[in-house]
Amino acid sequence: MLSVRILFFLTALTILPFYKSQAFTISVMDEKSGKPLSGALVTLESKEYYTNESGSLDLPLEAGNVLIVEYFGYLRERLVISGEFDGMILLYRNYQNLGIVILEENNYANIEYLDIPKQSARYAGGLNNVYDEIRSRFNNHPDKDLIEEDMNINVLFRVDEKGAISDMSILRADVQSQNIIREVMQGLEGWSPAQFNGRPVPQSFELQIRRKDGIYDLVEEPAYPKDGFEAFYDALEKEKKNPKDAVKYMVSGKVVVSFDVLKTGELTNFKIEESLGYGCDIEAIRVLTLAEPWVPAREQGQLVATRRELPVQFGGVAFFVKVDHKKKEKDYTVQDIINNYPYSRSLDLVDHDLDTISSNINQLKYLYKIDLENNNLTYLPETITSLPNLYELYVPFNDLVRLPSEMKDLRNLEILGLGYNEFDEFPVQLTRCKELRVLDLSGNKISALPPEIKDMKNLSLLYLGDNDLADLPEEIYKLKNLQEIHLVQNRFTEEKQLEIRSKFKKTKVFFD
Question: Hey, what domains does the chain have and what are their CATH numbers?
Fold first, then answer.
């Protein structure tokens, strides 16, 4: 009976929450292999610790503690300690992009664009030698002709502590192609391992291999007009002339034109996908041929040619849509626009008493601006991050408590208004929005800013008034482009205000 009581007591200890600080053993491991990660950096309350040879570490923990775990070549993990924490921390591999190899063309990666860290694994002679050796080994392979002409695959691999290739996965390829590419990749013997804290460590990579270059339909970073879509459409409107027959017969509608955007940004190979007739098709192609070169698309860090499709409107069809606030069908408003104005560039749904936004909003792929002020939204659909041209997003005076996880996919988002919502912490996914220039998080419940804020290098205006801030992280002072920061109605002491003003050398700081 006594042994049963002891067993119950020990079991209860594992599920009771931490009420007081107690010693706890944590173990940091590779999520894929389960192997321990020796020398992982663990930060607790601004103090740094490192795991031992078995990937373990003893720490004094209590409920509410925040652990930040980092290891080169892995995604950073942030944990809030609770009673269910079992001490096991799994880190996910971060695959370093090595660009694209075209087997039948001497292309080379833009090293600067790929942003490869200095401590990464290196190949003898540089990344260009990786490309050259892959081409050479492929062209000398006896079975190379068995691979399809349109082969386009992704290779995931790992360079271990000794510089050898391991854990290789080949995606989107048949068994025959996998075997050939595997043999080609295994012959790359010039690797030196990555370095972390003065010791060799494994690192994971991703490389795209295509047999021939061509026109891409889907790309990571779509081509776009160098001055943005708004200026592009303005220029189009100035050049466009309504054909006489279209005016005579009161023709109204759109012509849909597809075209290639070459690596140089030149627009070419125009084709009518949806015809309107009455001279409108010819006029649509004419004005598009006058367009300035675009910023070309990128895939895996490389400039690539891509196929785009755009409408050209005739007869005064509006690009900007403001939905009548008297409409009662909450979800219908977005669907109504999709059905009637699929090429809208601006969406205004201010003061509509909306609880949700339709996940179909991603069908409005030409949206440049969205205004959802003063509704009842608690979240935004994940699909909103699929809007490639979105430049301005306003969602103030709602009840937002979270944001879509992949905000970084909004590659053209520069202005974001999230004032007076219900955020109790700074949405860390915003730190991965590299182009964001203006951010308003006033009127929330934020008590701290994450150190990752240093990654928001283009931020120029930051509004954080009416929150619960009492201090700022040291990393924020590294934002060289920050022109203004607004901190009114927070919990800064007078001494702290003086300290903050002194640390911002060129940034204007507003406390009142």
Answer: 2-91 (2.60.40.1120), 96-213 (no CATH), 224-314 (3.30.2420), 323-510 (3.80.10.10)
Q: Which two tokens stand for residue 391?
A: 């430049």
> Partners of 155 in the beta sheet?
170, 207
Bridge-based pairing state of the strands 392-394 and 369-371: parallel
Chain centroid to Cα 410, Å, comes to 7
What would the two tokens of residue 274 be? 């949806």
CB neighbour list of residue 138: distance below 8 Å, 6 or more residues apart: 103, 144, 180, 181, 184
Amino acid letter at 105? E
Alpha-carbon gap, residue 355 to 376, rounded angstroms: 5
326 pLDDT higher than 80 = no
Query: 176-205: per-residue pLDDT in tens?
Result: 889 999 999 998 999 999 998 888 999 999
Where would I find the beta strands (DSSP E) of 172-252?
Answer: 191-192, 194-196, 199-201, 203-210, 215-216, 224-225
- Where does the pLDDT of residue 323 fall: very low under 50, low under 70, confident under 90, or very high at 90 and above? very low
- Count Cβ neighbours within 10 Å for each residue of 417-439 and write b for 16 or more, e otherwise: bbbbbebeebbbbbbebebbbbb
The structure tokens listed for 332 are 């219908």
SS3 assignment for 64-76: CCEEEEECCCECC
d(CA 462, CA 314): 41
Question: SS3 for 307?
Answer: strand
Q: CB 68: neighbour CB atoms within 10 A?
A: 17
Strands of the sheet containing 203-210, edge to edge, are 96-102, 203-210, 152-159, 165-171
C-alpha 249/C-alpha 431 separation (Å) is 53
Q: How many CB atoms lie within 10 A of CB 330?
A: 17
Q: Number of H helices and number of E strands within the chain?
A: 9, 31
What number of CA atoms fall less than 13 Å from residue 486's CA on the CB side?
15
Across 397-405, average pLDDT: 93
